[in-house]
Amino acid sequence: MPAELPEGDGIAAEYPGDLGIEEDPAVVFADGFETVKGDMFTAGDRDGQASEWNNEWDRAWHTMRIAQDPANVHSGRHAVEITLDQPLSYGAEKHFGEGFGTLHVRYYMKYHKEFPGCHHTGMCIMGGAPGVHVGEATGVHPDGENHFLVGLDTVRPRRRSGIPPPGKMNIYCYHMDQARKWGDLFMPSGEVFPSENAGLFGEGFVARPDRIADRDRWYCYELMVKVNTPGQRDGRVAFWVDGELAGDFPNLRLRSVEALKANQVVLSSYSSRRGPNKTLWYDDVVVATSYIGPQRSAAPQWGRSVTVRFLRHLAVESEAVCGYWDGPCQAGPPPTQPARDLLGRIPLPAYPENLVPSKNGGPTPTRDLNSFSGRGPVRGAPVRAAEAALAPDGGGSTMACPRGRREDSPGTRRQLASAA
Q1: Are residues 312 and 282 in the same domain?
Q2: In terms of residue numbers, what domain contains 220?
Q3: Which residue(s) pair with 288 in the sheet?
Q4: Do 304 and 281 belong together in one domain?
Q5: How far is CA 51 from CA 45, 93, 163, 276, in A?
Q6: For residue 156, how many C-alpha atoms fall within 13 Å in the half-sphere facing its CB?
Q7: Per-residue model confidence as pLDDT tens digits over 324-340
Q8: Domain termination site, one of 241, 258, 288
Q9: Among candidate residues 170, 169, 173, 88, the one with its CA nearest the CA of residue 127
Q10: Which pairing describes strands 262-270 and 168-174: parallel, antiparallel, or unpaired?
Q11: What's this model's pTM, rounded to 2 decimal places?
Q12: How many whole angstroms separate alpha carbon 215 and alpha carbon 218?
């Protein structure tokens, strides 16, 4: 019987907003696309274009734009936008050398509100022999030494099927026992296409309901691949949606040699035909050797999280906010670029609408990031607070406000605690 898999919170719960998640020992890659320079990915190969390369991936192809409209960004300021306006594949690869026996990729994805469905969407985990990438693997039957490929995908609905777009979620899998040169489709219910591989998952398989994503909504997807012991049927593929185990497929043979491991992650969408509204967005990709789980909003606690998130919520980055505020303090220069980057990586906080006002009364802070009206318990300049939040102890700023109030004063701590 396969071991029980986790659900709910995982690694990401320890890193609100994914801030610092790349430092976790199980995490091998994390990208919220905040560091991309320009409005689209450089296409090509990082090794051949080092001076021009503008992203954290190793290969990219066709047009991957950077979305900055908050409506199409899951957290931070950037997401990847792909519009399938040609019958082509669009995507990027990240490589991991020798690879891993078990690998997870978690990502957020959203479809256009009128997305009609297409050939492939989502992300893949792949094991490739030297020189074998997703392009070389497509349409080639795995022999146990050359490659395997596992994608979390959807089946484009057929006309008059009654199934709404984007279609049912499935695993698209290139494995040693597939029935044709193209990969098999594994449905959470246990159906396999083509049907020659029915019963592939063995007696330990647990059927689950098939799923269809709503369009115009962010989902948290996570895909896991555990390679088999060469000569045995103990490989396993699973996926989660918003932290809930949605499909689990044991009893697989992905390889016949020890050297072939999960060593590539692929962000890829492919359309075989033109059509309107074929746009989707990706954000907050994390790759790890164990379960990652959904991103968690930062908790309103005093210290690293509340300092930066409170300022992200209230402050104009080029202004300071201090004391029982009734106007800009103009305390110091605008934030440094590291501080701006930090503030940009923090998603909007889940604070109550009615934050406790100052002891002098007045309205509660506005939710508008570009202004601040009324009074509130913020101390010091955003740049100072952001820089202080990066300190090893994670404490608040100890810089004095020009009006003589300290951000980490006991009174401020009490106010922030009561606001939470």
Answers
A1: no
A2: 11-288
A3: 27, 104
A4: no
A5: 11, 19, 47, 36
A6: 14
A7: 223 333 334 444 455 44
A8: 288
A9: 173
A10: unpaired
A11: 0.73
A12: 8
